[in-house]
Amino acid sequence: MTEELERADNDSPWKEILEAYFPQAMQFFFPQTAELINWERPHEFLDKEFQQIAREAELGRRYADKLVKVWQIQGQEIWLLIHVEIQSKSEDIFAERMFSYNLRIFDRFAKPAISLAILCDTDPTWRPNQYSYNYPNTRLNFEFGTVKLLDYQNRWTELEASDNPFATVVMAHLKTQQTSKKLGERKAWKFSLIRRLYELGLQEKDIRNLYRFIDWVMILPKALEAEFWQEFKQFEQERTMSYITTGERIGYERGKQEQGQTLVLRQLQKRVGELPQEVRGRIQTLSLEQLEALGEALLDFTAIEDLFNWLEANQTVH
Questions:
Q1: Where does the chain show beta strands of DSSP type E?
Q2: Considering the chain, what is the average pLDDT of its residues?
Q3: C-alpha span between 7 and 174 (Å, rounded)
Q4: What backbone phi and psi angles, to 5 degrees, belong to 185?
Q5: CB environment 185-211: b (16+ within 10 A), e (fewer)
Q6: Are 168 and 213 in contact (CB under 8 A)?
Q7: What span, in angstroms and rounded, lies between the C-alpha atoms of 88 and 91?
Q8: Deepest in the core among 84, 95, 115, 276, taking most CB within 10 A?
Q9: What is the DSSP string of 123-174?
Q10: 134: which strand partners?
Q11: How confident is the model at residue 61 (pLDDT cuts 50, 70, 90)?
């Protein structure tokens, strides 16, 4: 049941939110490093440079990695390598990989990088923070900054009181982990975390960005998602703020509708052959419910006449 609710690309919401609120991420997770940085000067994401040092073979695992150029208060530039370990499993060679990336940046660009890791897994004992070896004449000890999201479970009141976007990110992440088998509870938390964004008095843009993160990670089965939306629509109406229902919700429905249309058109073509443009046009005006009904009905179609008959009987004329 819960396996079906896994999304394949949990790195993308992290990448988006890190890009949108990078200074706040640094201030929230790594305040000592953040203090070195002059945030008045623009920071720059070095995606191309990161691609040059990342091995293709490693793309199988889910990471959100960012290489960022910032300016120190003293005036010189520094590079930060931020690694978000999304997968919920610990990994033996993690520290070695952190060292390897740091070394590759130095080797390729002659830049020392500050290496930082955010660990999203559920193992309280897994806390990699250094890579070292020690021989009589050669010694190396590479240390990197690590934050463990699990530790914030004991700092919940601090999270609730914070208006830093990453307090919300951590709350959504932890509550998703804690409710993998309690989806009704997940729905309640999803609602209260999104409501909290309004109560913090955040701007519309920030509410939308954080809503997208929460919505992406706190996945619900279809029936609970529909209930959530009913409750949420009512909440927005009461507050007379329709930030999300008019924007993202329509986008969400439209995305599902386009997927439904594509699938139905493909299936119809297999069943009854090439569709005239006028028929395609009519299918594109169907609602999500009608598309689902057609998806079931077409399994019994044998000729294009069956489709015409179905459209006559089921399509409401606007």
A1: 44-45, 63-71, 77-85, 113-119, 130-134, 139-143, 145-148
A2: 83
A3: 16
A4: -65, -40
A5: ebbbbbbebbebbbebebeeebbebbb
A6: yes
A7: 10
A8: 84
A9: -TT----EEEEE-SS-EEEEE-EEEEGGGGGGGHHHHHH--SHHHHHHHHHH
A10: 139
A11: low
